[in-house]
Every structure is written in C-alpha cells, then in structure tokens.
Amino acid sequence: MSALFWTLILLQFSCVTTVARYVVGKENKPVVIQTLNLYHPNGLGIENDWVMRRERLACVDANLRHHRPDFFLAQQMLSSGNSPSDSDELILQAGALAGYEAEKIEIPIEDQDADRVAFLTAVALPTKIVSQRFQGLNTTMKIIENVYSSATVAEFGSGPVLLIQVDRMDLAGTIDTNLFYRNLSSRIQSLQQMTGICEERTVVAGYFPPSSDMSSLESLDLIDVARDVCDESPRCDTLSKTNELRQSLGIFIEDQRMDRIFVHSSSSVLHSHMVFQTAYPITSYAQEKGVKSLFSSIRYGWSADVLFRKCSVR
C-alpha cells in the first residue's frame, strides 16, 4: 500500500486520541455545591442528646428541601454506637436526601463503642458515586493532628469530579496553618495524580483556617468561590455570634469565615452565598434545655453554583 494511505491512517488515530484526551468548553448546566459541618461535641451536654440532634436535623432537612443542591458535602455526620436508628445519614436519607446517592467515610477512632463520626458526600440523581472504579483510592487521611480529609469521586456530565472534604474535629487551641496547607496541597495533588481526573474538575470543601498560608492552594489553581463576594466583613463569617445555638453551647471562639469551597480557576462561579443560617422556632424540649433559637449547626454553611469545564480522564 502507498505511503500516503498509511499516513492517512495514522492521522486518523492521532485525531481520535486527541479528541478523547482534550474536550473543550463548559458543561451544559451548572452544579450547586453546598457544604455544612453538623458539629459533633467532644464533651457532655445537650448536644449528646439525640432528641436535640434530631431537631437540628429537621432544620438541615428544611434547608436541603429549599435549596436542593446537586452536591452536599457534610462533615461530622454522626451515628450512635448504641442505637442504629440514631444516624444523621439515615434520618436525612428518609427525608430531603431521598433522591440522592451518598457515600459515608468514617473517621477512624479508637473507641469502637463510641458514636461514629464521618464525612458524607451526597449527589443528586442521576449523578452517581463512582469511587469504587478507582482502585487504591485513599478515601480518608489525617492532614495534621485532629484534622482529616476524605475523597469521593462522582460522575457528572462529561466525566468524573473529584470531591475532597476537610474537617477539624476539635476547634479548641491553635494549629500550625503552614503545615496544614502544605499537607493539604500535597493530598490534593496526590489524589489528582492517582485518579487521573482533570484538575479542572476538583472541588475541595469544609474547614479552612484563615491564614496567609492559604495561598498555597492558589499554586494548584484553586480559587475560593466567595473571593468576589466576601471581604473581611463579618457578613461572611460562618462561625458567628449571630448563631444563638453556638451561644447556648458556650462556644466562645472568635468569629471567622471557617467554612469554604474551592474549585479550579477555570470554573465559572455563577453564584456564591451563605446557607443553613435560618433560625427556626424552638420546641418545648429545646426550651427546657436553654436553647433560644434552633439552627442546623453551630456554624453556617456555604453554597456555590459552579460551571465546570468538560474534561475526560487522562
């Protein structure tokens, strides 16, 4: 056969490979991402009472029904070591999360009889959780002492999305923010390389201590979805004295914007705002416990409407 014939064949396969690896443009529709820390107490008190926790979960449920996020990334989901029915995941899946697929990733603890604390990633159908496709995926990891991270993969639109969560279990004391952001950046890069998922389709949500060391995330082309919305004003503080549940529990940490969502700089952030900040009327039970107003958690959550780039697994 002629040299021209084989040249045309090679060019054909070369074009197919190029199309498979590089898909241009944005997804057809944005995705609504929300994050919330449900708060698990370390000491005794009203928050160790599952009646009170169920009343808080009713507030979470009401917020989820109102906003209907595509991705719900929750930290400190709790399940009782003594009663199978006392489970944040089961309670919410019987309500607002009924139309979602979820992956729960437990944080390893030494006392197996104690309440179990976990990350929960819930995605609205028809989006699917596909973490099982990625052999060797390190779903949970300690970033520094008392700080953990989870990893979940979801199939959305043109391809997979890497969903990473971060949580600090106890807010008391101080942490080494330089080490925190250095280790977190390493964790993100490792997950991107291991999964082969395009970095343009990475989401990191949860706990981020305010610090100049946060700039290390910029080297990964990750941006705070609220960067054009928030400045240093208190209106963006997710840990705020305006939350009367926090005040009732006697948590006196300075107000700060602690809960954030990061996406790749190539993504379009269409809308970004605080969520789960609605105060609900207290029940007689909560009133007996000295609670003045009922909130979803001691911290508010954050939400963003994001348009991802199309990109397939390399």
Task: Pick out its properties.
314 residues; alpha+beta; Deoxyribonuclease I, Chain A; six-stranded mixed sheet; 6 helices; 13 strands
Describe the model.
The chain is of the alpha+beta class and 314 residues long. Helices cover 23% and strands 28% of the residues. The protein has helices at 3-21, 50-67, 88-93, 177-195, 244-248, 284-288, and strands spanning 31-37, 71-79, 100-106, 116-124, 128-129, 140-144, 147-156, 159-168, 202-207, 222-224, 259-264, 268-275, 301-307. The strands form 2 sheets. Strands 5, 6, 7, 8, 9, 10 and 11 form a 7-stranded mixed sheet that branches. The protein has a 6-stranded mixed sheet with strand order 3-4-2-1-13-12. It starts with a helix and ends in a 7-residue tail after the last strand. Residues 4-23 have low confidence and may be disordered.
Calculate the terminal CA-CA distance, rounded to whole Å. 34 Å
Query: Judging by the overall fold, what is the CATH architecture?
Result: 4-Layer Sandwich
- Global mean pLDDT: 86
Question: What percent of residues adopt helix (DSSP H or I)?
Answer: 10-25%
Q: What is the count of distinct domains?
A: 1
Q: What class do helices, strands and sheet pairing give? A: alpha+beta
Name the helix and strand elements from N-terminus to C-terminus, one letter apiece: HEHEHEEEEEEHEEHEEHE
Largest sheet: 7 strands, mixed
CATH superfamily: Endonuclease/exonuclease/phosphatase
What is the CATH C level class, in words? Alpha Beta
How much of the polypeptide forms β-strand, as a percent range?
A: 25-35%
Gross morphology is globular
Number of helices: 6
Number of strands: 13
CATH topology: Deoxyribonuclease I, Chain A
Integer-rounded radius of gyration: 21 Å
Taking pLDDT < 50 over at least 5 consecutive residues as the criterion, the unreliable ranges are 4-23
